[in-house]
Amino acid sequence: MGLNIYVYLAICMLLALFSSKIVKKVQLPNVTGYLIMGLLAGPYCLGIIPKGTIDTLSFIPTIALGFIALSIGAEFKLSYLKKVGKAPVVIAIMEGLGAILVVDLVLIAYGNDVSFSLVLGAIASATAPAATLMVVKQYKAKGPVTSTLLPVVAIDDAVALMGFGISVAIAKALQNPNASSFASSLIQPIIEIVGALVLGAILGLVYRWLTNYFTGRGNRLSITLAMVFICLGICEVFGFSSLLACMAMSAVYVNTSAVYETVFALTDRMTPPIFMLFFFLSGAELDITILSSVGIIGIIYVVFRVVGKVFGAYLGSKLSHAESVVQKYLGFTLIPQAGVAIGLATTAMTVVPEYGPQIRTIILCGTVIYELIGPLTTKMALKKAGEIQ
Question: d(Cα 278, Cα 97) in Å, to the nearest integer?
């Protein structure tokens, strides 16, 4: 008799809990333990959790990303943004462009087709905020690097979407010189970004009204869940970026509500099991058997994306006159890559179908590597910066 979904859920959570104890002994972040344990228990290793179960639980990562975006959006408090100034925006743009340009140039120099290089290079901009946020929360990191990091990863999503849209427009124009094709490719990411921001702003005001009207702790927690769910649902219907929409909703809420600290304190107590399941299932989805198929092009992507991120973050920090510790260490906290990159790789399947499968394979391989080493490099960078005690 096969196990049902509830038993599998319990197994996932218990294995994740035990993994956190194991990695703590070797001083690794909990998120690394969740990913590795999920990888081992998943269908591509020991097969404890079957593929069908992971597919059934696919709604959990979506919900987790919504709450992660909610947490990051809370960093956009106007009083804080006035204090840090333009630094996060400049750094986010420079680290995104740095990754795109470095990967593009190296791929083209290696002899790859320009259209292929542009599309693959564009995906290099995307950074996964989830692993970074989990490391910051686990170690209660505080300091200039952490304060700059959270708004940077929030803005990064918009930079990645715009960079991808422009690169795709150029790639399509090279393949088929057509002005309307170029324009439509450029307009789509703008619609996606603007739509997400407008939706998030409207829902943020609704969120404020509801938490003023309902004052009980249970009611306010229920409202938070409902607002994240409705935001995710509307984004799925209209094709908006759910990460940007949830961030915008949270940013508007923290700047207009007098009770946001109380509400988010309740949310922080509820989300750990969701985040734990998210990373465990993310690990279970990683197919390590494809690593052998990545080839030289994949190695170029994996290595030079990091080079571009680190150099771009350094240059952005320098231009915006950020503190020296930010200039030195921020780039090493931007390595994780997952959901947005995989989504863009899937889009590439239709944009440049002749290169789509190869691009998707490279991005999936990169995800395996980045998600395993990213949390560790983030921890090491924050520790070197003196922000983890």
Answer: 29
Phi-psi region of 29 (alpha: psi -120 to 50; beta: other; left: phi over 0): beta
Cα separations in angstroms, 21 against 33, 49, 131? 8, 21, 18
CB 163, CB 185: distance < 8 Å: no
| pTM listed for this prediction | 0.71
Selection from 83, 119, 36 nearest residue 350 by Cα? 119
Check: CB of residue 267 under 8 Å from CB of residue 70: yes
What is the C-alpha separation between 265 and 181, in angstroms, rounded? 47
Amino acid making up residue 296 = I
Distance CA 280, CA 130 (A): 13
Residue 176, sorted as left (phi over 0), alpha (psi -120 to 50) or beta, turns out to be beta
pLDDT digits (tens, 9 = 90+) for 30-78: 777 887 888 888 888 888 888 888 888 888 878 887 887 788 788 777 7
User: What are the backbone dihedrals phi and psi of residue 152, each rounded to the nearest 5 degrees, phi first?
Assistant: -65, -45
DSSP secondary-structure letter at 137?
Answer: H
